[in-house]
Specification:
The two termini are 51 Å apart. The strands form two sheets. This protein has a four-stranded antiparallel β-sheet. A two-stranded antiparallel ribbon has the order 1-2. It is globular. 49% of the residues lie in helices and 11% in strands. Helix 1 (2-17) packs antiparallel against helix 2 and helix 2 crosses helix 8. By secondary structure, it is an alpha+beta fold.
Length: 269
Amino acid sequence: MYNNSYKGFGKRKRSRYRGGYGTVNRRTKIKREKGTTHLQVIRVAVALLMGTLIIGGTIIGFCNYDSGNPKAVPNNDTYVKDTDEDLLRVVNRNNPLDSTYVPELVEYEGYSVNKSVSKPLENLLEEAKNSNIDLSVTVGYVSYEEQEKLYQKEYNRLKSSGKYSDVKAQAKTETTVPKAGCSESQTGLLVSFATSEKSNDFQNTKAYRFLEMNCVKYGFVLRYPESKKSLTQMEGNSRIFRYVGNDNAIKMISMNMCLEEYSSYLKSR
């Protein structure tokens, strides 16, 4: 509408002034239109750039973790969406489980694990096998009664060494072998891995590097990172992984959060 009416105005002025005022005015309008168009293009370019930076930052965040660069984006064969609140249950000395708590368990290669863990764990170990990685499970579900026996055994070992008082032996034990009710092994969601590779430190093995790169695809995260022991109240342990589900695992790693941090983050939202 604007362009058509403008042409009429230009013709009337051109017949009287031979292209004077009408021509100049037309050019001025065109310049303004071009200037507006350029501004719009710049705005669109800036918006696209910002969107690219945000998306890129998110992808990089997914890929970064405490000590490696795991493949955080699962494929359709391994991705499982979990909403069960039990997957994010934090269990420690401040949040103990009752002695009667027993999750729904299934047997896997001689160990009991939470039903939610069974299939993802099977898929994880299958990929390890196909990748020629020696990886096996050494600990799954541990009952309340069995956990108490493990705690007492470790406590007695430290106490008999003569290096610790009763109080210090108890405090030290709780950072490696929790008391009954204070261990997430009772949820059946905690899994400890081992390998036949000869190494004094599991973190230096091919098995650990495989877990580091692939655990997120199957909904697992390293439960007790060395850098988070002030939050977990546990010594760092590269063998112990916790099943939290794909969605949660991806978010935890993208934000570099342990379970305690992630649980608090969700509650604060």
